[in-house]
Write a structure and sequence with these properties.
Radius of gyration: 18 Å
Helix content: 25-40%
Order of helices and strands: EEHEEHEEHHEHEHEE
Distance between the termini: 39 Å
Strand order of the largest sheet: 2-4-5-6-7-10-8-9
Shape: globular
Structural class: alpha/beta
Length: 220
């Protein structure tokens, strides 16, 4: 099991269920680094109306970060507009919150904290999630060619007016052959809706996969 140690994210629980989620993540070696000097996001998990009311209190107990983000375990919850909250996030597949959230944290680790070989950074990431957004993370492994994964990802419904991050891994980066490897990625990106922003990133890894992250803004 991959260990994910987050340096830029401080995970904060707003209620009892949220505490259990963070504890379960830690048991799977997914956690925020204590006393990190690189914290950019205070990420508050919320599962109840009492948790909504407790957001300001728990944030006040932690050092202020560049952004404050509320993550809804129950996507039906409504968070009133708060001056100290920059993003309110939920997941499209609400029945799979835990697995979706794990994938989201892994995406942050590998694309915000470890920048990869393309300049995708925190500001790009925050552009994707600013405001009230519904998230989904789709990943697909491949054996030999990246096109194996992009063909599978075409089965996902890509909404209009959404922001996308398409990130992928290659076992070894070879600038002489990379253009050929990149062609299926370029083709897939060209098929995404014109509205919204499209970002991409890649890194070297023995785990071969393509990940599509979609952030769809919910208008109030």
């Amino acid at each position: 099991m991959e260990e994910i140690v987050l340096e830029s994210v401080r995970l904060i629980a707003a209620d009892q269920v949220s505490e259990l989620v963070i504890s379960q993540l830690r048991s799977e070696h997914i956690y925020s680094l204590e006393n990190s000097s690189y914290v950019l996001m205070n990420m508050v998990l919320v599962s109840s109306k009492n948790g909504i009311q407790n957001i300001k209190n728990v944030l006040a107990n932690h050092k202020k970060a560049k952004r404050a983000i509320a993550v809804l375990i129950d996507s039906e919850l409504q968070v009133p507009e708060m001056a100290d909250i920059d993003s309110v996030l939920s997941f499209t597949n609400k029945d799979e919150f835990y697995n979706e959230f794990k994938s989201f944290l892994s995406l942050i680790r590998h694309n915000v904290e470890i920048h990869g070989l393309v300049c995708f950074d925190f500001n790009d990431f925050f552009t994707m999630i600013k405001g009230r957004n519904e998230l989904s993370v789709h990943s697909c492994a491949y054996n030999e060619k990246i096109s194996e994964a992009t063909s599978e990802l075409r089965k996902n419904i890509n909404p209009n007016h959404a922001n996308y991050l398409l990130t992928f891994t290659v076992e070894h980066y070879n600038p002489d052959t990379f253009g050929e490897e990149l062609y299926p990625i370029k083709t897939y990106i060209d098929e995404l809706p014109d509205e919204g922003n499209v970002f991409w990133n890649f890194r070297e890894s023995s785990t071969k996969e393509v990940v599509l992250f979609i952030s769809k803004q919910i208008l109030s």
